[in-house]
Every structure is written in C-alpha cells, then in structure tokens.
Amino acid sequence: MSARARGFTLLEALVSMAILALVATLVYGGFHAMTRARSNIERVGDRYQQGRAALSRLARELGSAFLSAHQPFASQLIRARQTAFVGLRESPADRLDFTSFSHRRLRRDAHESDQNELSYFAARDPDGGTLDLVRREAPYIDEDPSRGGVVQVLAEDIESFQLSYLDPLTGEWTERWDSTQAAEQFGRLPAQVWIVLVLRGARGEPIRFETKAPLGMHLPLSFAVGG
Questions:
Q1: Four-residue CA torsion sign, 73, 79, 81, 86
Q2: pLDDT tens digits, residue range 132-152?
C-alpha cells in the first residue's frame, strides 16, 4: 500500500490547516465589516429620525401657539398668568418660550386643560458634555413662561439650533421676537417660524434639518373683551 493511500503527510495537513485558517479569516472579516456597516447605517438612521421628530413636534406645537388679552378681574392676579411668545438669538442654540394649546392630558381626572407653557433650548449633557436640544413643558400657565414643568431631551449632540421669525406686518424675517415688550412685537405672534437644526453625525459630519412652521393665529385672543 502506498504512502498516499495511508493518509495525509504532515506537510499536506499543515497546508490544509493554513488554507482553512485563511478562509475562516476572510469569512470573519466579511461578517465583521457587514455588521459594522449595518451598525453605522442604523446610527445614521437614528440620527435622521431624531432630527425629523424634533422638527415635526416643534412645528406642530407652534401651530397651536397663542396669546390672550384676557385678564382676571382681581388686579393682584394679573401677573399670575401671562401668555407670551419670546424667541432669543443665542449661540450656539437659540431659545424659544411660548404658550400653546398643545397640551395632552394623560390622566382622566387631571385638573388640566389643553393650554401649556413650552420652551425649546439647548442644554449640556452632564455625562458626555455634548449639547442636546431639550423641550420643557408646564401644564399650567403662570407669571413666568420660561420656568417650571418637565424637561425632556429631543435630540442629542446638536451643533446648532437656529430660529427666525416672519413679521406679518413688514413681511421680513427677524432673529428675535418678544410679545411682552412694547419696544419689540408687543401682543403679536409671527406668521411663520423658520427652524434650522444641525445634528452631529456618527462620524462627526453635520446633518441639517430645516422647515418653516406657520402659526395659526397672529393676534391675541380677545373675545368678550370690552373695547
């Protein structure tokens, strides 16, 4: 019986093992690259979903923004409830505080209406130090439309958040809006808000989102208010 018929030689076994190891390395590398690419695509998709959701929510709530000319009969209570629309140009992210008809009651017996205070601004993540876009909501309107309520993160690791306001009287865009000051846009709302949100991508590249949100009303509610 020949040596080849009795089995593999040591050299043949070593060559076979080397080929098998090479094939296994190539297969593992392919699967690893595929998994990494899939993970990157999912991260990018999550970032786009986060940005679109943040803009969609802000635009929807801006559509319900309102001011009210009604005041309580007791003079000492006039400052206890103030509707407002205040947009400030800040760096790297603007701030917007306003009152809206967008509140949703989550409990049947809650003593709440559809009115609320809303704020959109940037805050530092205490853990990672990144800049996040956050939303504040208070279910009751009080004398300070910029404080109170619950704050939640809408979009993580943003580069910038910029708002511009279309004045219905002049037809021009402005970087600030303040319905509480006589020297600004006292007792008025903008016709539209131009929203630009830039997120930081998975590899550090900027991801830009942009939309224009129309407001449903421009003047304060004044039904049953004597002239």
A1: positive
A2: 999 999 998 888 888 999 999
Cα–Cα distance, 91 to 95 (Å, whole number)? 10
Give the Cα separation of 116 and 47 in Å (integer): 28
Cβ(23)–Cβ(31) below 8 Å: no
Residue 80, both tokens: 């206890």
Q: State the CB neighbour count (10 A cutoff) for residue 139.
A: 19
At 33, is the pLDDT very low, low, confident or very high (cuts 50, 70, 90)?
Answer: low
Confirm whether 227 is domain-assigned: no
- Which residue has 């080397």 as its token pair? 18
Look up the pTM and report it: 0.77
DSSP letter (8 states) at residue 80: G
Q: How far apart are CA 132 and CA 110, in angstroms?
A: 30
Query: What totals of helices (H) and strands (E) does the chain contain, helices first?
Result: 2, 10
- Residue at 31 is within a domain: no
| 5-25 residue pLDDT tens | 556 687 777 777 888 878 878
- Rounded to 5°, the CA angle 24-30-32 comes to 100
Domain hosting residue 150, numbered range: 46-214
